[in-house]
Each structure stands twice: as C-alpha cells, then as structure tokens.
C-alpha cells in the first residue's frame, strides 16, 4: 500500500510538474507574443510619426543633448536652403542672424532648462544670407524615466505675416493723416475722434472750407471692418471731396455719391453717411442723412438727438435724399458720430452734458470693453 | 438668439426673437445664405419678436436682400413694430424690403 501511495505520489508530482512546466511555457509564449505585438505597434507608430514630421509644413530640427543636429525635415531645407547633409553634426547656431544679443540667447536657454520649453519670435539667417523672422518652439525630449534624449526645434517662417502687419501699421498711419485734426478758428472749435477697431477703419470723415465762413463736411461708415472697408471708405471720401465746392443742394451731392458708388459695394456691403454744410455767417447747419440717421445738437432746444432720415449708400441707385436745417447760436455744439460710438450710448440722457464733458464721455465709452467697432466723432462748438 | 426655420416650396420662413446683435446677425446670415444658395428665393422673416436691432442686424438683412435680388427673389419682413419699425422708417429701409 505504501509503495502504491509512493508511486501514486510520484506520478502526481510528475503530472504536477508537467502541468506547471506546460503552464509556464504557455505563459511565456503569450508574453513573448505580447512583446512582439507591442514592438510591431511601436514600430508602426514610429513610422507614422516620422512620416508626419517629414511632411509637415513647419520646419523641424532634432539635436542630441549636446546640441548637435541629428535630423532635419524637408521643410527645414525649403526654408533655410541647407540640406540635411550640410547640417548633420553641427550646432544650429550657424543659423543666427546677428540681430539678437547674448542676453537673448541666454534667456532662451535658461527658460528651456528651467521649464523644458521656450517659444517666441527669433530672427535667423538662410543659406543665401537673407535674414528672416520665425516663430520658434524649442522643447526638451525626455524618455519615460526623464532622461534627456534630444532637443527639438520647430519653427515657421513668419516673414509674410510680419510684412502684412507692418503694412497694416503703415496703412493705419496714412489713413490717420488723411483726416483733419482738431482746430480752432474765430468762429468755431472742432474736435475729432477717429478710432479703428483693427489698424484701419471703415469710417472716414472730412471737413472742408468752401467759403470764408462756410464749411462742407461728411462722415462715412462702410459696413464691416478691416482693409476692404477702408478701401471703400477712401473711395467714397474722394467722391464727397470732389463735390465739396459744387453749388448744388446737399441732397443732390448725396444722390450723386450714391449713384457713383453703387458699383463699389460688392455682395452685401453698403455704406452709411451723413453730409453737412455749416454757414457760420448765417449760423445755419444743413444736413442730409444716408444711413447715419442721428446727430447730437445741443442748442438749448429739445430733442438733443436730431433725426436725419435717409437710405444707406450702395443699395438703390434711384433713391432721393432730404435735407434738414438747424439754426445755431454762440455756445451751441453739434456732434456727428458713427454707430461704433452711437450704439454704445444706448438711451443715455446726455442733455445736460457740455461740450468737453460729452467728449470725455465719448473717450470713456471707446476705452471700455464694450467697444468693438470703428468709431468716429466730429464735434463742433460755435464760438 | 433662437432661430425657428421652416420651408415651403421655394420659400423659407424664419422667426426671430429678442435682440439682434453682431453674434445673432452673423448666425442668421450664415444660415439663410445656405438656403438662398440652395435655391430658395423668398425669405420671410418674422420680426414680431425682435425688440432691438443694431447696425449689424440691419447689415445682414440688407446683405440678404441684395443676394436674393441677384437670383430674382425677395426678402419679406413681417411684424415690424416699436423701435425696430421706427429704425426701418428712419433709414428708409421700408422702401427696400417688402413689409407686411
């Protein structure tokens, strides 16, 4: 019986051992398969990432931790003119333009060391010697245990964007020079406010002397913002200026401008305007509205907000306009404003405001975070 | 702003509500231009619920009007009232749109 039990035990041990060995082999085999599968997935991901970096529009430099280039993408060659063979093993400082001082680079690399990343605008030099601005991001690449593997530098050539920005700044300066500034003469004081929502304004205004004590003026507000509207506003400005000295009624001048400018307004665009003539000998203001349908008249009589009915320019070539007049006295003041300012005033009661306090209100409204549109005000006080 | 849109034949009807500022005007323009480009020629806009409209809102209505004119269509405004109706009269847009 004891021998039978021993044999049974031996057989059980062999069976148990065989089972264990089988289980271990099976488990290891599954592990191996899993590793192989993960390896294949990693390789697949690597190939995908490499393809993306090869084809991306942004230029890329990869260096080792000592700063030597180990790889660049085709976009790098396109932007800088250097091939990968020409730059491998080199430090990217050969790209420096000479525009930045030592402090700039020190601050950049200190930030990379401290935060793992730096981003900003930098000027570099192409192979042909041309310097150009780029938007650069430098990042430290680490492995999963934090070991520093590489630096990556990804950048975009922003020459065109910077040029466009510079051009817009110049256009803004030119536009401001085209409009008259504040002045005082023996009969009246004129204060102007002219603010573009984004570099250039779709508003325009002018005030032209057409006689010893006679003035012709207008405000224009092309629907929308930006460069296109400023071009349209400039064209309408010329049309009004050409008619300034013509001895025809104001309403007729507005009609001519409307008919001539219809073709300027593509798609759904149009223009609001108001024109006026000031006769300081007779102390009479005549005005004609075409979409700018309100003016503020502080004459001691109510209402302060005077209506100037009339259709926008650029919608109907056959529309006719109407004129209205106000008699003025010493101390009276008139304000022509575009809707970028008028809409901010809402239903505020301004009847007790004097000339200077109203101008202060205009400035405060435009400095608020509610202001988003081009805004213009031409304010005149009778002396 | 809530836009309630429905179609019938070659007409599209939209009911506006509340106030129309820049954001609402942009949304209206984008939605209705799609319908016009799809061939809908009559735009019926119910303004009876609109309490306020600024220059952006007027601009969108004018833009839609000009676009529908190009395809031989029209914009019909319904239910103008209060300050919105006064604004349309002041700007003489009552002579541009069909108003019922």
Describe the structure.
The complex is a heterodimer of chains A (383) and B (100). Chain A is 39% helix and 28% strand. The model of chain A has no long low-confidence stretch (mean pLDDT 89). The longest helix of chain A has 54 residues, at 2-55. Chain A starts with a helix and ends with a strand. Chain A has a six-stranded antiparallel sheet with strand order 6-7-16-15-12-13. A five-stranded antiparallel sheet of chain A has the order 2-1-5-4-3. Chain A has nine helices and 16 strands. Chain A has 383 residues and is an alpha+beta fold. In chain A, strand 8 (203-211) and strand 9 (214-222) form a beta hairpin. By secondary structure, chain B is α/β, with parallel strands linked by helices. Chain B is built from three helices and five strands. Chain B has helices spanning 22-37, 55-70, 82-90; strands spanning 4-8, 11-20, 42-53, 74-78, 98-99. Chain B has a five-stranded mixed sheet. In chain B, helix 1 runs parallel beside helix 2. Chain B is globular, with a radius of gyration of 12 Å. The mean pLDDT of chain B is 86. Chains A and B meet through loops of A and helix 2 of B.
Radius of gyration of chain B: 12 Å
**What is the CA-CA span between the terminal residues of chain B?**
22 Å
Q: Into which percentage range does the β-strand content of chain B fall?
A: 25-35%
pLDDT under 50 segments of chain B (min length 5)? none
Any low-confidence stretches of chain A, pLDDT <50, length ≥5? none
Protein traits:
heterodimer, A: 383 residues, 6-stranded antiparallel beta sheet, 39% helix, B: 100 residues, alpha/beta, 5-stranded mixed beta sheet, 5 strands, 41% helix, globular
Task: Describe the structure concisely.
The complex is a heterodimer of chains A (383) and B (100). With 383 residues, chain A is of the alpha+beta class.
What is the topology?
The complex is a heterodimer of chains A (383) and B (100).
Chain A (H helix, E strand, L loop, with lengths): L1 H54 L3 E5 L5 E4 L1 H7 L3 H4 L14 H14 L1 E9 L5 E12 L5 E10 L1 H20 L4 E2 L3 E8 L7 E9 L2 E9 L3 H18 L6 H12 L9 E9 L4 E7 L3 E5 L6 E3 L16 E4 L5 E5 L1 H7 L9 H13 L7 E8 L1
Antiparallel strand pairs in A: 1-2, 1-5, 3-4, 4-5, 6-7, 7-16, 8-9, 9-10, 10-11, 11-14, 12-13, 12-15, 15-16
Chain B lengths: L3 E5 L2 E10 L1 H16 L4 E12 L1 H16 L3 E5 L3 H9 L7 E2 L1
Parallel strand pairs in B: 2-3, 3-4, 4-5
Antiparallel strand pairs in B: 1-2
């Amino acid at each position: 019986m004891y021998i039978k039990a021993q044999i049974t035990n031996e057989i059980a041990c062999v069976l148990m051992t065989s089972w264990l060995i089988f289980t271990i082999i099976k488990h290891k085999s599954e592990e191996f398969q899993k590793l192989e599968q993960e390896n294949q997935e990693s390789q697949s991901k690597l190939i995908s990432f490499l393809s993306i970096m090869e084809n991306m529009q942004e230029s890329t430099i990869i260096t080792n931790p000592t700063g030597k280039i180990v790889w660049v993408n085709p976009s790098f060659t396109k932007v800088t003119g250097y091939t990968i063979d020409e730059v491998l093993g080199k430090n990217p400082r050969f790209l420096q333009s000479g525009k930045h001082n030592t402090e700039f680079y020190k601050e950049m690399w200190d930030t990379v060391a401290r935060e793992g990343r730096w981003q900003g605008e930098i000027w570099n030099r192409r192979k042909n010697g041309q310097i150009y601005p780029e938007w650069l991001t430098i990042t430290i690449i680490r492995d999963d245990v934090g070991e520093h593997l590489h630096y990556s530098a990804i950048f975009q050539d922003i020459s065109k964007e910077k040029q466009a920005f510079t051009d817009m700044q110049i256009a803004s300066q030119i536009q401001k020079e085209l409009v008259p500034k504040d002045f005082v003469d023996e009969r009246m004081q004129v204060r102007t406010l002219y603010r573009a929502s984004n570099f250039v304004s779709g508003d325009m205004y002018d005030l032209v002397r057409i006689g010893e004590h006679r003035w012709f003026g207008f405000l224009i507000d092309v629907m929308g913002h930006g460069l296109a509207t400023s071009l349209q506003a400039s064209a309408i400005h010329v049309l009004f200026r050409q008619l300034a000295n013509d001895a025809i009624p104001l309403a007729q001048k507005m009609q001519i401008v409307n008919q001539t400018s219809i073709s300027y307004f593509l798609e759904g665009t149009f223009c609001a305007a108001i024109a006026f003539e000031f006769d300081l000998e007779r102390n009479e203001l005549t005005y004609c509205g075409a979409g700018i349908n309100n003016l503020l008249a502080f004459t001691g009589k109510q209402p302060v907000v005077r209506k100037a009915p009339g259709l926008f320019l650029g919608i109907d070539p056959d529309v006719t306009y109407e004129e209205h007049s106000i008699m003025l006295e010493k101390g009276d003041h008139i304000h022509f404003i575009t809707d970028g300012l008028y809409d901010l005033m809402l239903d505020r009661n301004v009847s007790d405001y004097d000339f200077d306090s109203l101008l202060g209100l205009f400035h405060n409204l435009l400095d608020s975070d509610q202001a988003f549109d081009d805004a213009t005000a031409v304010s005149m006080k009778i002396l | 702003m809530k836009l309630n849109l429905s179609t019938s034949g070659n007409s599209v009807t939209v009911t506006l509500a509340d106030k129309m500022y820049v954001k609402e005007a942009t949304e209206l323009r984008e939605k209705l231009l799609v319908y016009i480009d799809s061939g809908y020629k009559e735009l019926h806009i119910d303004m009876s619920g609109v309490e306020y409209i600024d220059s952006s809102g007027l601009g969108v209505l004018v833009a839609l009007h000009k676009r529908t004119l190009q395809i031989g269509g029209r914009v019909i405004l319904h239910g103008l009232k209060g300050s919105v109706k006064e604004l349309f009269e002041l700007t003489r847009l009552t002579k541009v749109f069909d108003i019922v």
